[in-house]
């Protein structure tokens, strides 16, 4: 399976879009070289969520950047998005795979080592596209989470799995290099791009750092 999970991964948060609206943040991030975008809408009604997903998909289409939907398989299907990101309390990933098919990107958050051990007993076939280690560092954008994994957690998971690892939680310019060197295949960021005055420049900076250390 081709690994599309690498580089900078934008996870959206409309309240954190301080200087631009969501669509403009996503457009500028795409110009800056973002690799994936996840639309995360915890409060929006289904119709608003769907409209946002369709709009972002059109923005990202010229850049060939995949759009993933947080949690909602129905929105993914209705919008023709490229995949979903699931948490431990969402629909089980194998049910999502059955519904969405083999080609759609499915990623899964791991909050504890026990989550990982439970996963490998299920022997995912076809495999998940990535595992998200969450949170790497404590952050205000991810609430009700287990204790942070830290860099040691990233290194541990890298040694345990062949799947790409997405690191999320408290990642910013100042610690990005450490997370990459610990083994992350992708840096999922929220406020570092959404709240930036220049989302394009913020994305470019993180992307250059990633590729300089990975290539």
Order of helices and strands: EHEHEHEHEHEHEHEHH
Rounded to the nearest angstrom, the radius of gyration is 16 Å
**What's the tally of helices?**
9
CATH H-tier superfamily: Aldolase class I
Question: How far apart are the first and last residues' alpha carbons, in Å?
Answer: 20 Å
What percentage of residues falls in helices of 4 or more residues?
Answer: 40-55%
- The 3D shape can be described as globular
How many β-strand runs? 8
Domains, number: 1
Tell me what the CATH architecture is.
Alpha-Beta Barrel
How much strand?
A: 15-25%
Q: What are the low-pLDDT stretches, counting only 5+ consecutive residues below 50? A: none
CATH hierarchy class name:
Alpha Beta
Overall residue-averaged pLDDT value: 93
Question: Which strands sit side by side, in order, in the main sheet?
Answer: 1-2-3-4-5-6-7-8
CATH fold node name? TIM Barrel
By secondary-structure content and strand pairing, the structural class works out as alpha/beta
Descriptive overview:
- It is a single chain.
- This protein has helices spanning 22-31, 46-60, 73-79, 93-100, 113-121, 150-160, 176-182, 191-194, 199-214; strands at 7-11, 36-39, 67-70, 83-86, 105-110, 130-133, 165-168, 186-189.
- Helices cover 40% and strands 16% of the residues.
- The longest helix has 16 residues, at 199-214.
- The model has no long low-confidence stretch (mean pLDDT 93).
- An eight-stranded parallel beta barrel has the order 1-2-3-4-5-6-7-8, surrounded by seven helices.
- The chain contains nine helices and eight strands.
- It has a single domain, classed as Alpha-Beta Barrel (TIM Barrel).
- The chain has 215 residues and is an alpha/beta fold.
- α5 (113-121) links the parallel β5 (105-110) and β6 (130-133).
